Amino acid sequence: MLKKVIFFIFVLTLATESMAKPKGEERMRFLVDETNRDHEPYADLALYMVERYISSKTSTLIIMENCEHCFPGLQNMHTRLLRYFLKRFNPTMSLQLFFGLPEDRLWDYNIFIVDSMHAFKNLSINIPETSYEHQFHFFIILTLRTKSSEIAAHHMRAIFRECLRFNVDNVVVMLELDKRKFGFYTYYLFAEVHCHQGENIEIVHFNTYFNGSLEHDRLFPQHLRDFHGCPLFICLDLGYPLLGFHGNRSDPQDLQNIRLVAGIEGDLLRDLAKALNFRVNFSISKGRGVIGENNNSTGCFAELAAGKADMAIGCLSSTDGLRHVFSYSISYHQSLYVFIVRSGLHFGPIKQLAQAFCPSVWQAIGICCIIGMIFIRFVISCTSSGVCEKLVGQRKHSDSTNMIVVMMGNPIKILPRRNCARLLLMSWLLATLVLRNAYQAKMFDSLRISRRIPIPRTIAGLEEHNYIFVTDKYAEFYPRNMTRIISNVTQRYSIVQQSDTERLVTSSMLDTLAWHNRQNWNTSYLTYVDEPIYNVQISMYFKKHSILRSIFDDRIKRLGAAGITSHIGEKHVKKQFQVMNANSQRLPAISSNMLRGLYMLYAMLMTIAFTQFALELLTKRAPSVRRAMDWMHYVGPK
Questions:
Q1: pLDDT digit string (tens) for 110-142?
Q2: Strand, coil or helix: what is 237?
Q3: Which stretches are transmembrane (predicted)?
Q4: Distance in angstroms (rounded) separating the CA atoms of residues 94 and 501
Q5: Could you tell me which residue, 354 or 560, shows the higher pLDDT?
Q6: pLDDT of residue 32 exceeding 50
Q7: Given CA atoms 578, 582, 584, 589 in this order, what sign does their dihedral have?
Q8: What residues contact 351, with CB distance under 8 A and at least 6 apart?
């Protein structure tokens, strides 16, 4: 009774499968003979291709098998193929059989044994979400045999679209064309007749195995090298000297003209467009691109996340902490990220001469002079002749008054007779001699070149000297209470440049500073702190697991190996412009700008001399002026 039930279930299963079989499948001829040895050509060729082209590149191989429309003979053929493959497999390579468990995932190299497009679609393929960019390779053994090339193309096109959904471009389908003759197929997204990704796929027959030899010595085809003039949607994040745009941002024609981009990445993009033969549709980010973890990215990253752009370029760093949210190319330029400060607080010649006498000192000197003059007049007017002579000298010719006038260039006409007054006068003359010599030396040194207060050379030194950090957002490497938020980088540069007395600091790439100083050679005083913050690696970004990444990586590597990327960087960034006022070219010769302090002092002396000359003329016509001048030199009788 049990045997009858089992036989009934078996017959019912066969009848159900035959009823569910599509009409298009009736023309297909499967390998159903259980006793034949048709699995051996598949197994021998697959084993040969793995040992020759995969074993040297990876230590782990994943094998996945699925037979969607399998009769017992075809299923047994798949089983024998796997058994034959495992028996003769290279023992030095790790092998993993994939059974479609949810926790399983792909590896760098994967073999699929399927009978149709339905079998491939029903595999539980899981692309790992990691920060590491896997370069997946799919080697698909399609056991489907049909006389219709249209049916074979239909199945392969569906398989390639499924691979495209996973953003895998290194895909090879091995299909038996005739007895012991196999064809190797791949797909291209871009062709001369179509440019839209996903809708149309060009199937390419790139290799053939016949009579024990391959037509071309390779398993995986070369990367796509020609976009056939298809457009790519590129988001630009502008920032000199890396990327600039010289066109009208609202003009659609300018946004399709690649000649209007400038800078390091602009030149690189033109070289890539010429080598890969693609056109551009630019969109320019209005805000700075910031990667967000929860679909809250801004700028070009927001356009990538929304699918509006194929790639983003322009001052984008591959060292960003959230870089794993998107795919990014290899680095083609690097620069240090540093603190930017004014090259010392500026003190011109006049300011240096007056630096020893701050306003409070000048006030104290003036008050002492006034008090001294009042005291002298009081002693002369209210004391006897003996006391007056001991304290301030003779009544008629006050020695103390003469000492004050001496500093203005007036000679002493009568020497004091008392030792106390003589000692006071001698000390005063010695002090004035020393002060005059020191001041003249300081004046000579000041007129040669302007001086600057030294700036800190470390990050800790900036905090110690209370420098205010001007930036677009709060940073972990600087205190929040010493940070001032300003979004525009040009405005930040201008604020630090104009900080004559206030201690301000901002941050940017060293190349940006060099470009700014080159553009403002005559006026810029910006330099950088020796201790760098970190090293910036410049890359272009793509959608996660984008196929374009591998294509552009291959071409960027070629340009780098040829020295083109380094040549472009040196073309736009002149290293001698990084530190202003510290290069020997800063003082090639004595200029009028350097002697502006001398000109100012000369003008002041000429003004004083003209004033004195005018007063001498005025004393002849105005007796009151003459009496005031005499009063400064002589003291009349009591």
A1: 889 888 888 888 887 777 666 566 778 899 999
A2: coil
A3: 599-619
A4: 68
A5: 560
A6: no
A7: positive
A8: none
Q: Is the dihedral of CA 335, 336, 341, 346 positive or negative?
A: negative
What letter would DSSP give residue 152? Answer: H
Separation between Cα atoms, residue 156 and residue 160, nearest integer Å: 6
Q: Residue 106: name the closest of 83, 129, 122 by CA.
A: 129
Sign of CA dihedral 507, 509, 512, 518: positive
pLDDT bin (cut points 50, 70, 90) of residue 13 is very low
- Please list the residues that pair with 98 across neighbouring strands: 64
What's the pLDDT tens digit per position in 278-307? 999 999 988 778 887 777 888 898 898 888
At residue 550 the predicted structure's pLDDT band, cuts being 50, 70 and 90, is: confident
Let me know if 557 is exposed, middle or buried by CB neighbors in 10 A (0-12, 13-18, 19+): middle
Q: Residue 198, by phi and psi: left (phi above 0), alpha (psi -120 to 50) or beta?
A: left
Question: What's the pLDDT score for residue 538?
Answer: 92
Tokens 């036989």 sit on residue: 7
| All domains of the chain in start order, with CATH | 24-214 (3.40.50), 223-332+539-573 (3.40.190.10), 357-434 (no CATH)
> What is the average pLDDT across 526-551?
88
Q: Could you tell me where the beta strands, DSSP code E, fall in 354-499?
A: 451-452, 468-471, 483-485
As a whole number of angstroms, the distance between CA 538 and CA 334 comes to 6
CA dist 63 and 113 (Å) reads 8
CA atoms in the 13 A half-sphere facing the CB of 316: 27
Average pLDDT over residues 55-78: 78
Q: At 508, list the tokens.
A: 């940017």
**Residues 299, 290: contact at Cβ < 8 Å?**
yes
Q: What does DSSP assign to residue 456?
A: P
388 or 227, greater pLDDT = 227
pTM of this structure: 0.65
Q: How far apart are the C-alpha atoms of 177 and 577, rounded to whole Å?
A: 65
Whole-angstrom CA distances from 165 to 508, 513, 544, 547 are 39, 43, 12, 10
For residue 19, pLDDT beyond 80 = no
Q: Is 555 exposed, middle or buried (0-12, 13-18, 19+ CB in 10 A)?
A: middle
Whether 173 contacts 117, CB under 8 Å: no
585 forms bridges with which residues in the sheet? none
Higher pLDDT, 75 or 246: 246
Residue 345 tokens read as 């607080």
**Amino acid letter at 30?**
F
Q: What CA dihedral angle connects 215, 216, 220 and 224, to 10 degrees? A: -110
Confidence of residue 208 (pLDDT cuts 50, 70, 90): very high
Tell me how far apart the alpha carbons of residues 528 and 342 are, in angstroms, rounded to a whole number: 8
Distance of CA 96 to CAs 61, 110, 213, 267, 361, Å? Answer: 6, 10, 28, 46, 86
Residue type (1 letter), 165: R
- What SS3 string covers 338-367? EEEEECCCEECHHHHHCCCCCHHHHHHHHH
Provide the token pair at 96: 């993993």
Q: Give the tokens for residue 461.
A: 């030194």
Of 375, 348, 269, residue with least CA distance to 312: 269
Describe the chain by its helix, strand, coil percentages, rounded to 5: 45, 20, 40
Work out the average pLDDT over 499-510: 85
- Token duo for residue 100: 């479609």
How many CB atoms within 10 Å of residue 63?
20
Band of pLDDT at residue 574, cut at 50, 70 and 90 = confident
